[in-house]
Amino acid sequence: MPLTIAIDGPVGAGKSTVSDVVASRLGILHLDTGAMYRAVGLYMLENKVDILDEGRVSALCEAGKVNVDARYEDGVQHTLLNDRDVTPFIRTQEVGGAASAVSRYPAVRKMLVRRQQEMARQQPMLLDGRDIGTVVLPNATVKVYLTASSESRAMRRMLQLREKGDATPLEEIIREVNARDYQDMHRETDPLRQAEDAVLVDSSDLTFDETVNAILSLVEEKL
């Protein structure tokens, strides 16, 4: 079995950026599963589909109208939507909200989980998301639950948005983070939760490098 690392956690915990560095240090690929859900959300927005219409969203996915995949160039993930590279378009607040909405639907999750599992069977890989250790890779070699306080996560998100010229107030971002947490943790299908055998890493008071090193230490101990 290839080495598999599952990193789960709430929005804004730094899963994607931390996972990029951890995977690079270990010489394995990193699959950002959240980007795949964002691609589905982007499809619905671009095609004027009501993201709250579960029947319509599910029907499109089941009919093969929404094909999401990932390819790697120099170890960097590019997210594909119907063979189009949508990596530059999926990091907006609007797409994030759409991703959170459609990720509640079993048909969407079934479609993406199947593809994620296929990819992880082919080579050593680190996957991050919200149901990796509990659903996608229940037998992962190493499981981590990466979190931080809602205030810390909102501050990090605000700094990311400022770099893009987005002036959304911190208070609004905190409300969005808390709302996203509630939605992710209370959805009926595959809710966000810490797997029983996952190690909790709280990065609220850790630097980026300290967070990376904490996870690398867990991998070294396991191996």
Commentary on this structure:
It is built from 9 helices and 8 strands. The chain is globular. By secondary structure, the protein is α/β, with parallel strands linked by helices. The strands form 2 sheets. Strands 2-6-1-7-8 form a 5-stranded parallel beta sheet, sandwiched between helices. The chain has a 3-stranded antiparallel beta sheet with strand order 3-4-5. Helix 1 crosses helix 9, helix 3 packs parallel to helix 5 and helix 7 packs across helix 8. It has helices at residues 15-26, 33-46, 54-62, 93-102, 106-122, 132-136, 150-163, 170-186, 208-222, and strands at residues 4-8, 29-32, 68-73, 76-81, 84-85, 125-129, 142-147, 199-202.
Cα end-to-end separation: 13 Å
Helix content: 40-55%
Mean pLDDT: 94
Number of helices: 9
The major sheet is characterized as:
5 strands, parallel
> What class, by secondary structure content?
alpha/beta
Brief description of this entry?
The chain has 9 helices and 8 strands.
Strand and helix map with partners:
Blueprint (H helix, E strand, L loop, with lengths): L3 E5 L6 H12 L2 E4 H14 L7 H9 L5 E6 L2 E6 L2 E2 L7 H10 L3 H17 L2 E5 L2 H5 L5 E6 L2 H14 L6 H17 L12 E4 L5 H15 L1
Parallel strand pairs: 1-6, 1-7, 2-6, 7-8
Antiparallel strand pairs: 3-4, 4-5
Helix pairs in contact: 1-9, 2-4, 2-5, 3-5, 7-8
What features would you highlight for this structure?
223 residues, globular, 5-stranded parallel β-sheet
